[in-house]
Structure formats: structure tokens, C-alpha cells
Amino acid sequence: MSKKIQPLSIVFVWNPADNEIVKPILEYCSKLLSRDIKNPFSRAINLPIFYYTTLKKGVPESFDYLDSEKSIIFSFVSKNVIIDEEWKKYIHNLSKINNSIVIPIALDKYAFKIGAPTNLKNFIRFYEFTSNPIEKIFISITHEIYRYALNESFQEIAKGKENSLKLFLSHTKDGNRGVELAKKLKEFIDDSQMRNFFDATDIGTGYRFDEEISDNIKESSIIIIHSDTYSSRYWCQKEILTAKSEERPIIAVNVVENFEDRNFPFASNIPELRVKYNGGIVEEDLLRILSSAIVETIRFFYSKKLLNNYCDNSEDEIRIICRPPEVSDIEKVLSFDNGKINIVHKSILYPEPPVYLEEVTFLNNLGIKTYTPLTSDLNELTGMKIGISISEPSEEDMIKIGQNKSHLSILSQDIARYLIARRAHLIYGGDLRPNGFTEFLFNEAKILKNRLNDETYKLTNYIAWPIYTNDNEELKLWKAEYCDVAEMREVKYDSAVADLIINEDTFLPPKTAQNLYVWSRCLTKMRKEMIEECDVRICAGGRKRGYKGIMPGVLEEIIIAIENKRPLYLLGGFGGITSSVCDLIQNGIVSEDLTLNWQINNNSGYKELLSYATNRERRTSVDYEEIIEKIKKVDITRNGLSLEENYKLFTTPFVEEAVYLILKGLKNIKEN
Prior knowledge:
Elements: E1 8-13, H1 19-33, E2 49-52, E3 70-77, H2 79-82, H3 85-93, E4 100-106, E5 124-125, H4 133-148, E6 165-170, H5 176-190, E7 198-201, H6 209-216, E8 221-226, H7 234-245, E9 250-254, E10 272-274, H8 283-310, E11 318-320, H9 330-333, E12 334-337, E13 340-343, E14 347-349, H10 361-364, E15 369-371, E16 385-391, H11 395-400, H12 405-421, E17 425-428, H13 437-451, E18 459-464, H14 473-482, E19 486-491, H15 513-533, E20 536-541, H16 553-563, E21 568-571, H17 576-587, H18 596-602, H19 606-617, H20 624-632, H21 643-651, H22 655-671
Parallel strand pairs: 1-2, 1-3, 3-4, 4-5, 6-7, 6-8, 8-9, 9-10, 11-14, 14-15, 16-17, 16-20, 17-18, 18-19, 20-21
Antiparallel strand pairs: 12-13
Helix pairs in contact: 1-4, 4-8, 12-13, 12-22, 15-16, 15-19, 21-22
């Protein structure tokens, strides 16, 4: 594996006064450009997207720390921006960020009054989209992503129709629906604003197929219009085979009306959408097709870029493909010479997620290894017990770093996915709320167990008293669902507070200082037992306020790990208390949230808890100065990474880069 460099980051910037207009746009874009956290093994593109705005007056934080090869910044400009000098200056300064391009989006006609240098750029004019505006601005945005980065060369393409995304429409020349859709699609592109983004062609009558295929398919994204007779037509089959051979992005549009007696097998293994023809073809259908085509195009080239980054360029034995392996790939890895079969590439690397093993048996039987980055080093961490501490920071914290809950959800899923696939044993101390991080981890284990046909995947989830006494019927069903992949380890209350517990089978609400004290002692006991079982600990996020223990939970787990000399992987780029710890180690800066006064002033009932604890134990219950000294003295390089690599781990907001560094460190520990 070569050095992991994030190829691209996408940034959206907007004034909160424009939330009503901007948020639906961002939700739509995020849905199509990010992975669905509830369906983590889908083949959706997963671009790193950041969202910069504010909750209060003022402008967002700077984000010049986004260390990717390229950044595309979409800045929404409106009357609310141009009447605010601070916002105008902020938008103008975006163009100074290295390796970035700024694409302004005009929400109204006043946007152009923003002045230089922003008004010298070519605006996307959202306010001019009258029908289906969100779908149209999505195409505008994704076309800029294609044009600036995610194309053949990963280089910026100049604006202009000659550089628009070329679409090749593959369809039969008979069959009413296929012909009608191809005609409507081409007319829609040629006669609307879409002509700025797409250039659609098909094979004209009287042209030689082999000549036109050379000039069109090899530089186009292909839209298969799949009608009843499509698979039976020789030229349609030829177009598909050429597109697969030339390794082009392909989508299919299903317009089958009645019956198809055979689906051409090479027309599969690609995204497909259906047009229902309820009352004819409407603009929404055409926009959905075009959106799908451009999303698949940028997914295709983004995958190619990521896989090339993953592989060492000298690894000639590896063939990179941008779809799951299929029969047509045999010609790419084998050569045939005088009746003899030669292996040209010993392995195929393809994008996540891995297919089921049975699907690639035909290649494995030929001696060709097929794998994704996830499955490249199976068994690498067998027997290693890895603790995970991930919890969600406050909304304010996440907004400052341009993130939301989905960033930490994807992080927890990917960490779990890569570690479980390498046969590590995960240890987590989380609650059992639906849609919480615990559920994300458990779902990864269940899916991998099925995908890789392995019964050994196990997790241990620690639950402190009195939390486990609060079982309801929903939680019982939840435990039953995951009992085959996870052990639920219930940690009894601390004996030091036994006299304060009336009934150990009854839930104790954390509403009084005494009850909060019981909770804090029980949580500390659970964390100590959990971390003692771990070989290493991974920490990210973490609340600074609103916790139930003697200190922020992730902070306490970091301190216990330091006391037990457990290697730590600290992911500060995802905010929360972990970020404050990283800043202290790297820069010697003591954040205010690592001080007693701040914690007392920002946590209701915390002062009373500490007072109760001090009176009962006759000693200071928590010493933040001592905590700071322990953090300062930690040998962070015990985790198998150099100091420079740890500093990168402290700051990267990119999930893939963080996972890469964690795996590198764990591998070094395992080997030494």
C-alpha cells in the first residue's frame, strides 16, 4: 500500500440566513454523493463533503487545513452575503486556499454585486432554474466536479460545449419506447440548459460502426436504453462489449414494456434505473437519467483514482477495474498465445464493497485473486483486541469543522469494517440506542460475516450498571438480533457504592448528585475493565458536555489507556474532546474544555457531583491539572506510527486517510 493521499474534497459554504433555500439542495446532493449509512455496502459514491456555515452571527471557521490534492468549494451567494462585509471578505478569501477552485452559486440576482475577485468567476445561476431547480443545480454541481477533477485525466477541463460530458446513447432503432426515450433525451439536452453539461450521440444511419465506435464510445459515458428487443440486437451487444472493453462508465435505463426472453449477460453489473412511462416521458425522468449518468461517471473515475493511490505504481501484477469483476474481465488478466493461456495480471483490485465469494469463483479457479482494499489483508490482525471510543460531539463543535453526524457514523463503520475483516476482536463500551454507533458496528460485523462466509466475527460490548437494568422489549429484540456477532458484557456496580443502591435490579435515574456519583463510579469501573482487556484503543469525537461520568467519557478512556500503557490512535480531525487532547499533545495548547472551571460552568449538576464525591471520598475526585500532565507525557508513538504520522492522524478529517494510518500502525505493532 502506498502513501494515502486524499484526492478530492468537496466544500459547501453558505450564510445561515439562506438555510431555507440551501439546506434542501445540500440534502439532495449529500444523498446522491455520500454513502447511505443505513446501507453501508451499497455501491454509492462516497465523496468527502464538508459543510461550512454558522449557528450564530459571524463567518465560518477557516478550512485551509483540508489537505487533499484538490478541493472544490461551492459558495452560495445572495443578498444576505453582499450586505455583510464580513461575509463578503470571507467569500473573497476562499480563492486564496491552495489547490482549490471556488464555484460561486447565485441564489438571487443580487449575488453578482459581491465584487472582485468573486464576481469575475462564472456563477451557477440557481435562481434561473424555474422547474425542478434542485435536480438541475445538482447536475450543475456534479458537472463542475467532473470538469475540475473526476474525469479521465484528473485534470481541470476548460468550460465549453466541446468539453461537456459526452454521452453515448445505446438503443435499438425499433421498439417504440427505446427510440422515443433516446429522442426525448437528446432533444432535452440540445434544447435546454443541459446543453452546457452534456453532448449526446448515437450511431447515425450510414456510418461504419467500427469507425464511429472508435470516435465515440471510447471517450463517452454510456446510457443503455434497455427495451424489449435490446438484448437480441447484434449492434447493441457490440456497443456494450466495446464499452466494457474500453472500460467506460455505463448505466442502464429499463424501459422494458412486456417481455424479454434473454437479458444479454454483459449488459449487467452496472447501475440501472427504471422509467415507468406513466403518461409519457416527463422532465423529471430525463433529469434522473442524466443525474445517474454523471454520478456514475464521477464514481467511476473517483474509484480509479482511489485504487491507484492505494496501489504501488510498481505493482504491475495488479489489474485495477472500476466495477466488480465479471466474465468480460478475463481478457484483461489472461492472454492467449498459440493455444496457451498466460496470466498477465495475477490479481484484480476493484472498488468497495466486496462481492460474495461465489460471484468470483470463476476467476479464483483460474488462479486470479480478486479483492478490494477491505479484503486485501485478511487475517492480518488475528487475535488483536482493539477498543473503540467514538461518540458524537455537540452540533456547535461539528459545525466548526464542517461536519455532521454522518461523518462519525461513516468513520465508525469503516473502522469496524476494516478491523473485523482482518479478524481483529473489537471492544466497545456503548449504549444500545437504535441508529447509535454500537448498532453501526454490529451491522458491519453481521454483513461481513455473510459476505466473507466466516463465523468467527465477534465483538464485545461493555454495558455498565445501571444502564443494563433499563431493558425494554425493543432492546431485548435488539440484543437477540446481534447475539450471533456480539457478546454483551454487563459490568456490575462498583462495590464502593453498594450502600447507595437500594435495589440492584431497578434502574437508577441520574437526577441527583448522589445518583450521578453512583453512575460515575460505575462508568469508571466499566471503562477500566474494558480497557484492561484491550491491546490498543482508537478514539474520536467525544462530548465535552452533557455526559454522566466524572469527566467526559472519551477523555476518561484516553486517561485510563495512558495509565495502562495501551497504545492510542487519536483522531482529532473529527472534533470533540479528542481534538482538544490532540492539540495538547501536538502544540502544548490547553483547551478551555480541559479545565475544571469550564467543565463546571458548562455542565449542569457537575459542581454538585464533584462536591458530593469529594465529601464522600475525602479527596479530590478529579484533577484536571494532573490529567493535562498525563496527556503531555504520553508516548504516542507506542502505536506503531512515527510522530509525523501521528500528527497527521491528529488533524486529518478524511475517513480513508485515518483508517489507512490506523491499519499501518496496527500492522507495525503486530509485526514487532
